[in-house]
Amino acid sequence: MSSEEPSQNPPADENDEKKPSKKELAKAERLRKRQEAAAASAAAAISAVKVEGDDPLAANYGDIPLKDLQSKEISGKKWTEVKNLTHELKDITVLIRGHAQAIRAVGKKMAFVVVRERGFTVQCVLTVAQDVVSPQMVKFANSLSRESIVDIEGVVSVPSQSITGATQQVEIQVGKLYCVNKAIPTLPINIEDAARSEIEIERALQAGEQLVRVNQDTRLNNRVLDMRTHAVQSTFRIQSQVENLFRQFLVSEGFVGIHTPKLIAGSSEGGSAVFRLDYKGTPACLAQSPQLHKQMAICGDFGRVFEVGPVFRAEDSFTHRHLCEFVGLDVEMEIKEHYSEVMDIVDRLFVQMFDTLTEKYADDLEAINKQYPFEKLKYLRKTLRLTFEEGVQMLKEAGVEIDPFGDLNTESERKLGQLVLEKYGTEFFILHRYPLAVRPFYTMPCHDDPRYSNSFDVFIRGEEIISGAQRVHVPEFLTERAQACGIDVDTISTYVDSFRYGTPPHGGFGVGLERVVMLFCALNNIRKTSLFPRDPQRIAP
């Protein structure tokens, strides 16, 4: 969702998320209750085991008192991250902390605890042995509720056979086990269910087995648990890197990071999709983009600026790709001769970003791919550029009629993306010289035909992801354009006045962070790439 995207209300049926039927939900609920009943029965059976006498090894396990967790001391203990547990640590004693993802009793003298830390898991083994592990310690391990936070100290061992129930191919032979914080006995959703792919569910159905499908609303209602799955963890690690790569590239190109206000007196984009509020008795709104202020920074002689910050849109878009609040990645820069200079930045920035993500973050991409399978993005070393007229002609030749001075709708965008892929072998391309009528008021018209503009959109996998343009930097013309678009010029007077003191030609673009990740990873809904999404129906958690 680009920060410069014109307000639009695509049809509500655009959401591609598969909704389970009432029958499926009822079956899943019955299965969940049976699983919980079985787990409760097993826990009761374990608790019923009577262990005689005091335990001389009692200090090696148990609940850590709250007072010991209140920053009581610095012990100097060294912790090992679960992801770093490898064969090289064989026979070495390690200390780990994580969630008890699964607990399995094997009689009265043995138990397995799978510990998870940030998507990586390791199998920990408790075996009753004199002076090492007592029956009481095994009983304590089996009494833990799933997702409780535990500290485990033990020796790393390498089993003769591969481990299928954990990411790490080593085990920890437990010597000490402490519960740092207990989870409630019955969780709203199970992590194993939330981590299951649609392919696994369908395969099980074909085999006559009913597995729990956790739908999107359930995930978002219990986001804290959903975030613990490996795919979600990796999705937001990729998102973090997209932001980092965006910053690093622009800084290397001489851009300066800025922060602009989100409370403004007038709308920054025009239209009705504005969150209005009272600002100490004065009408105000939440910024639809940093557009006006990033241009003012160019007026202030910064030359090249960028911003990463929240963007607000009040449009009622019930689709797979629209949010009411998202993170905008915005750029503005002086233009020496031609707005293609801005497209050059887009080209180099995203090709470098895609290269780095593919090469350096393959493990995270694979974790996402395991739950949500996708094909790697196809893109060229030099990004393809087509004019809007060329795009319309391609669609026309394919039998799709488009208003040559209107905007592309969702279906037209997808069809054009398909045609471009077939003809040029790329899913990432730039479409420029858009009709002026469908662009914001501050967009510069083309010199040779005022019906078109010096603007562009960028597409990934058939969906618009970036909007950009050369701006109008002449105050009289800017005022004329704002009035023509129905904007009260008095509310943007300080913006217009900024251009009265000598302003260079300039342009820029905006892109939604969540949309970059969604389309790069071919996810089917932008809510998967927003940590706590805000849409017309959701303002919690």
Written overview of the protein:
The protein is of the alpha+beta class and 541 residues long. It has 15 helices and 17 strands. It has helices at residues 22-47, 135-143, 191-194, 198-206, 216-221, 223-226, 230-252, 291-299, 340-360, 362-371, 388-397, 410-424, 475-484, 493-497, 513-520; strands at 61-63, 93-105, 110-117, 120-127, 149-157, 171-181, 256-257, 263-264, 276-279, 282-286, 304-312, 325-334, 384-387, 428-432, 455-460, 463-470, 506-512. An eight-stranded mixed beta sheet has the order 7-11-12-17-16-15-14-13, with helices on both faces. A five-stranded mixed barrel has the order 2-3-4-6-5. Strands 8-10-9 form a three-stranded antiparallel beta sheet, with no helix packed on it. Strand 15 (455-460) and strand 16 (463-470) form a beta hairpin. Helix 7 crosses helix 9 (340-360). It is elongated and about 90 Å long. The two termini are 22 Å apart. The model is unreliable at 5-17 and 44-52 (pLDDT under 50).
